[in-house]
Amino acid sequence: SRAPAGAIECQVAALWCELLGLDAVGAEDNFFDLGGHSLLAMQMHARLADCIGRDHDLDLVDVFSHPSITSLAGRIEHGSALPASLDEAAQRAEKRRAALNDNRRNHHRK
């Protein structure tokens, strides 16, 4: 994997090294494969929000949906929302949840 390049990739890489206790990380490495977990992801999100400004739309979900330095840096740089496919998947999951809850409510009324 190539080394991180550019200001944002290098900033994210430095943060990962600190959080994960590593000397170096590659730009394409996966945060979770390197030992990252949800608590560390939350810490990373908070630290990134401090670095890039609270007015930025970086969401905790972005940390999970962009697990490499390259993809996360791209997300920060371009400020784009979740990829459409992921957004659609989230909407489908929400509809399924609503349908399950309706079924449970209807079942309990009988």
Which overall shape is indicated by the principal axes computed on the Cα atoms? elongated
Helix content: 55-70%
Mean pLDDT: 83
What share of the residues does DSSP label as strand, in percent?
Answer: under 5%
Through-space gap between termini: 59 Å
Weakly predicted, low-confidence segments: 81-85
Cα-based radius of gyration, to the nearest Å = 18 Å
What count of helical segments does DSSP give? Answer: 5
What structural class results from the helix and strand content?
A: mainly alpha
Q: Kindly state the number of beta strands.
A: 0
Quaternary organization? single chain
The biggest sheet amounts to:
none
SSE series: HHHHH
Question: What would you say this structure looks like, in words?
Answer:
This protein is mainly alpha-helical and 110 residues long. Helix content is 65%, strand content 0%. It has five helices and no strands. Helix 1 (7-20) packs antiparallel against helix 2 and helix 1 crosses helix 4 (69-78). It is elongated, with a radius of gyration of 18 Å. The termini are far apart. Mean pLDDT is 83; it is low at 81-85.
Please describe the topology of this protein.
Elements: H1 7-20, H2 38-52, H3 60-65, H4 69-78, H5 84-109
Summarize the structure.
By secondary structure, the protein is mainly α.
Label this structure with key terms.
110 residues; mainly alpha; 65% helix; elongated
